[in-house]
Amino acid sequence: MRPGFYNCFRYHLGSIAFGSFILAVVQFIKWWLYWLEKQAEAGKNKLLVQFARSLRCCITCFEKFIKFLNKNAYIQCALLGKNFCKSAWNAFSLIMRNAGLVGLLAGIGFIVYILGVICITVTTGVCGYFILDAMYKDEISSPIIPVLFMFIIGWLVAKLFMGVFSLAVDATLQCFVADEELHKAGGGGGAQFTPEELKPFIHDKNQKHGCCGGKK
Fold first, then answer.
1. Residue 214 lies in a domain
2. What is the secondary structure of 37-77 as a DSSP string?
3. Same-domain status, 69 and 125
4. Other C-beta atoms within 10 Å of 115: how many?
5. Which domain holds residue 19?
6. What confidence tens digit (pLDDT) does each residue in 112-155 have?
7. Contacts of 216 (CB under 8 A, 6+ apart)
8. 191: left (phi over 0), alpha (psi -120 to 50) or beta
9. How many domains in the chain?
10. Angle, to 10 degrees, between the axis of helix 84-97 and the axis of helix 144-185?
């Protein structure tokens, strides 16, 4: 972990700052449009309200794209050590070349993410209720407020934990796709470092969705 922190702040601090700056600019524009919309509503200027609302919708979509691109660019920075712009382009190109496989596995990862958040949140709240009932049953009038706080804490922990899980899934997927492309280009017959248990699943999805060129 210590070498990872050292490499991050020694070699990639500029990439972190640049990606954050781009996202901050987009978010600033979004909130400025929101302020403009409210000012137009106060002035009863319906045309300006609709114009600001439409632009804010477009900026919100662009913000989601920037967040997605930033995350994958940072993964590329960690994997290959390139600068932010080069990493962002590499990540975008890699995903576009393997859109079917990436989309499929991203969908599965999203479902697992949602289920994980729900399970952790519910388990924390339920266990908290039974612990509270066993230890302080006669000392509290109603367990609703403490249990509500337990649900909130469980939700926060779940978001943090599953956020790390989601990032690990994306990084692992990029590692596989890069491995697949590099060894196919070098005549190695495909990915060389994928666990044997996963190769049939990944190769079947590649053929089904025409990934990595779609050639057999």
1. no
2. HHHHHHTT-HHHHHHHHHHHHHHHHHHHHHHHHHHHHHHHH
3. no
4. 11
5. 2-94
6. 889 999 999 999 989 988 888 888 777 777 778 888 999 999 99
7. 207
8. beta
9. 2
10. 80
